[in-house]
Amino acid sequence: MNIQAIIIIVLFAAAIFYIGRMMYKSLTAKKGCGGNCKCGVDFSGVDAPKARK
């Protein structure tokens, strides 16, 4: 095997790993606010507005 084939195989494996990791992260359960927010704000003391009748 020549060096070009080895480089192509390594790049292909890295791309498959990257795509697999992105899919795994998107399918796993999320913690906290339910998204990718990194705000770290505690909303436990905030009351929701009451609905009008």
How is the secondary structure organized here?
Elements: H1 3-27
Structural overview:
The structure is a single chain. This protein is mostly helical and 53 residues long. It has a domain of 29 residues.
Note the main attributes of this structure.
53 residues, 47% helix, rod-shaped
Q: Calculate the mean pLDDT score and round it.
A: 80
Query: In this structure, how is the largest beta sheet organized?
Result: none
Helix content: 40-55%
Helix run count: 1
* Cα separation of the termini: 75 Å
Order of helices and strands: H
Give the structural class.
mainly alpha
Shape, principal axes of CA atoms? rod-shaped
What share of residues are in beta strands? Answer: under 5%
Low-confidence spans: none
> Over the alpha carbons, how many angstroms does the gyration radius reach?
22 Å
The total beta strand count reads: 0
Précis, in short:
By secondary structure, the chain is an all-alpha fold. The protein has a domain at 1-29.
